[in-house]
Amino acid sequence: MSVEEEENAAELKIPDEFLKAKCLMNCEVALILEHKYEQLQQMADDPMNQMSQVFEKSLQYVKRFSRYKNPDAVRQVREILSRYQLAEFEGIVSTFPAEFCTSAKTVEEAIAMVPSIKTRGRAHDDEAIEKMLNDLSLIKKFE
């Protein structure tokens, strides 16, 4: 992106570092923190390995707001977001709040949440967006 261009996420005009950044969904953060929690529980005798309040609150938060609980479901969500060629941050934004399926029930709601999925030059017509929403809903339904 050139210096003169104004940032506009709705048109995918964002700095390269955001386009290349690896973003995590709440459910992925929950899996990582749960693994760390288990490690800390095994070493609970060592005072250096005590859990901080911030760690515990963070774990509670991501568990509460994670739409998907099953690691296989998380992988399937990633595959769907990749199949529809969403930029990394679009995929993650589209999974908030409460991981997209519960939020966006219509194509219009999805576009309102993530306007860039409808930008020119991309193969996201209303039918494709609706199919993506249905695919994401099916994962949760069968989880």
From TrEMBL:
SUPFAM superfamilies: HRDC-like (SSF47819)
Record has Nucleus as a keyword: yes
InterPro entries the record matches: HRDC-like_sf, RNA_pol_Rpb4/RPC9_core, Rpb4-like, Rpb4/RPC9, Rpb4/RPC9_sf
Single GO molecular function: nucleotide binding
Any single GO BP term: DNA-templated transcription initiation
Entries under Gene3D superfamilies matching the protein: 1.20.1250.40
Domain RNA polymerase Rpb4/RPC9 core per the UniProt entry, residue ranges: 16-143
Localization annotation: Nucleus
Record field: transmembrane: none
Keywords attached to this entry: DNA-directed RNA polymerase, Nucleus, Transcription
A Pfam family that the UniProt record links to this protein: RNA_pol_Rpb4
Chief subcellular location: nucleus
SMART domains linked: RPOL4c (SM00657)
GO cellular component: DNA-directed RNA polymerase complex; nucleus
Similarity section: Belongs to the eukaryotic RPB4 RNA polymerase subunit family.
Protein name listed in UniProt: DNA-directed RNA polymerase II subunit
Species this chain originates from: Sesamum calycinum
Classification lineage: Eukaryota, Viridiplantae, Streptophyta, Embryophyta, Tracheophyta
